[in-house]
Amino acid sequence: MTTEKIDGVSVTTQANVYFDGKCVSHGITFADGTKKSVGVVLPATLTFNTGAPEIMECVAGSCEYKLDGTDAWVKSAAGDKFSVPGNSKFDIRVTEAYHYICHFG
Amino acid sequence: MTTEKIDGVSVTTQANVYFDGKCVSHGITFADGTKKSVGVVLPATLTFNTGAPEIMECVAGSCEYKLDGTDAWVKSAAGDKFSVPGNSKFDIRVTEAYHYICHFG
């Protein structure tokens, strides 16, 4: 089941641009103050650092990810989620655009 | 005056990726059905075609644009807007990321 739309949010108009544009996201805020982001990773192999724990939900495309301290690349496609601990990092490799929702906390 | 947030919208989670990622946007829909998009153009010189008329509102960064049938490059920076007729096109050149809201119709 893919989350195609998120209703009732405030969107931050300025994008977050990471890795020279290989990752672009927009922040959204729910009525209760919860923050998430919607974004896309373009074809690349990147390493992301986390502050807060994150849940990455794929809404289109796919990626492979490798959590810090593991050796396994795991595929994540539309409808899949994976969790990343706080103050950690993960590698991601993308060959077709990976569209995601990032849930924090 | 820059529009930093847009409240009370539904956001489409899958990004629109144009020109190999030189332009990335997310669609938003208001309660009354009005559609806009929030996006960013990364450093590049591109030509965009319009279907519906568009108003491009800069929320951060800047660009220069040239409307079809004109010879003048015009700067547009945060807080500025420019209008593009329907079924037309415009050139845009960006040297720092141009963050925008696209209003249709």
From TrEMBL, chains A, B:
InterPro entries: Ppnp, RmlC-like_jellyroll, RmlC_Cupin_sf. It is an enzyme of class 2 (transferase). It catalyses: uridine + phosphate = alpha-D-ribose 1-phosphate + uracil; guanosine + phosphate = alpha-D-ribose 1-phosphate + guanine; cytidine + phosphate = cytosine + alpha-D-ribose 1-phosphate; a purine D-ribonucleoside + phosphate = a purine nucleobase + alpha-D-ribose 1-phosphate. The keyword Membrane does not apply. It comes from the Bacteria. Its EC number is 2.4.2.1, 2.4.2.2. Pfam families: Ppnp (PF06865). Keywords: Glycosyltransferase, Transferase. The keyword Mitochondrion does not apply. Catalyzes the phosphorolysis of diverse nucleosides, yielding D-ribose 1-phosphate and the respective free bases. Can use uridine, adenosine, guanosine, cytidine, thymidine, inosine and xanthosine as substrates. Also catalyzes the reverse reactions. Belongs to the nucleoside phosphorylase PpnP family. This is Pyrimidine/purine nucleoside phosphorylase. It comes from Acidovorax facilis.
